[in-house]
Design a protein that fits this description.
It holds the Pfam family Abhydrolase_3. Keywords: Hydrolase. It is built from nine helices and nine strands. Helix content is 30%, strand content 22%. Helix 2 packs across helix 4. The protein has a single domain, classed as Rossmann fold, CATH 3.40.50.1820. The two termini are 29 Å apart. By secondary structure, the protein is α/β, with parallel strands linked by helices.
């Protein structure tokens, strides 16, 4: 049986500075996982943003991912408990995340990390928030922000089934999925939409790239660090993820794309004692990409992969998985 996900080593609170309506000291909790082994120097930092549609979830939802990252990279993992809608709708969760990223970097010595070796990761809403946070860090002034500390260098982004385009209606997204019956329920997505985008913004006006980061302009795409995208076959977000990957490819940006066949949105999130083997495979693929980013510069090659539809007993562990990867993802 697989071991239980590790508990955080510690937690701490950071200040909210960017949200004028509800800022203050010690508003945002950050959970931290530190590898048990003795460090030989500053470690990389992997920041995680949990899913839950900006209305549910907490930092410890990333526990299994944190264990995979520590085991593969010997990195310190930080999971941000950004504040949730409906009390804290868009853009508060993104602003909380930017605040936390800056203050984690500021405390680099405290946690034994290198602030210039940071990777952002996230799941669903958290993946969207990770990408939106990166956008703000590039040009905060264009959104009316004044950052309290210098922005750290982000070495890469790991995005599991992100929300990228709010200008597309939910019915359109469901229609694009080959199994609309397996997508998130209308009741849940209606609740998410009403809570997170409040006051309501007309669909055609949801082009703010903090809200729809997949619509970022081409010049901003050129600035992106390497990206690892993991999408699910039976997910209403599959098509927009693939469109974003196509934009990355068209501009020659280093990225890897995987589609988990036969699975729906959030397939890795339920906390069973024995998770599906594909979870170990995909977490392994993501950490392999991250290892490459931390060790060398990337060129513009990219790869598009699909996870095989297999049973628990027949699929190999990530360490034994033989696949063809791009030059930018080789280790």
């Amino acid at each position: 049986m697989d071991p239980a996900p590790p508990a955080p080593s510690t937690s701490f609170w950071v200040d909210s500075t960017l949200t004028e309506s509800c800022n203050g000291r010690s508003k945002i909790r950050v959970d931290v996982w530190t590898p048990a082994r003795v460090a030989v120097g500053p470690r990389a930092a992997v920041i995680c943003l949990h899913g839950g549609g900006w209305i549910l979830g907490q930092g410890t939802d990333c526990s299994r991912w944190a264990g995979a990252v520590m085991g593969a990279l010997d990195a310190v993992v930080f999971s941000i408990n950004y504040r949730l809608a409906p009390y804290h709708p868009f853009p508060v969760p993104i602003e909380d995340t930017v605040d936390a990223i800056l203050q984690i970097a500021k405390r680099a010595c405290q946690f034994g990390i290198d602030p210039d070796h940071m990777i952002l990761s996230g799941f669903s809403a958290g993946a969207s928030t990770a990408l939106s946070s990166w956008i703000i860090l590039q040009d905060p002034g264009s959104f009316g922000y004044k950052l309290p500390f210098p922005a750290p260098q982000i070495r890469g982004l790991v995005l599991f089934y992100p929300v990228l385009d709010w200008t597309i209606s939910r019915p359109e997204k469901r229609k694009s999925c080959s199994r609309p019956d397996l997508t998130l329920s209308k009741a849940l997505t209606d609740l998410i939409d009403a809570c997170y985008i409040y006051p309501c913004i007309a669909r055609k006006e949801r082009t703010d790239i903090r809200l729809s980061p997949g619509l970022m302009p081409g010049d901003l795409i050129q600035q992106l660090p390497p990206i690892h995208l993991c999408l699910c076959e039976y997910d209403m977000l599959l098509a927009e993820g693939q469109r974003f990957a196509a934009r990355l490819e068209a501009q020659g940006k280093a990225h890897s794309l995987r589609v988990v066949m036969g699975e729906k949105h959030g397939w890795d999130c339920p906390p069973p004692m024995w998770p599906k083997e594909s979870v170990a495979v995909e977490y392994g693929e993501a950490t392999q990409a991250m290892a490459a980013w931390l060790c060398r510069e990337h060129d513009s090659d990219n790869a598009s992969m699909r996870s095989a539809r297999t049973s628990r007993l027949s699929i190999p562990r990530p360490s034994a998985l033989l696949i063809s990867r791009s030059k930018s993802c080789e280790t």
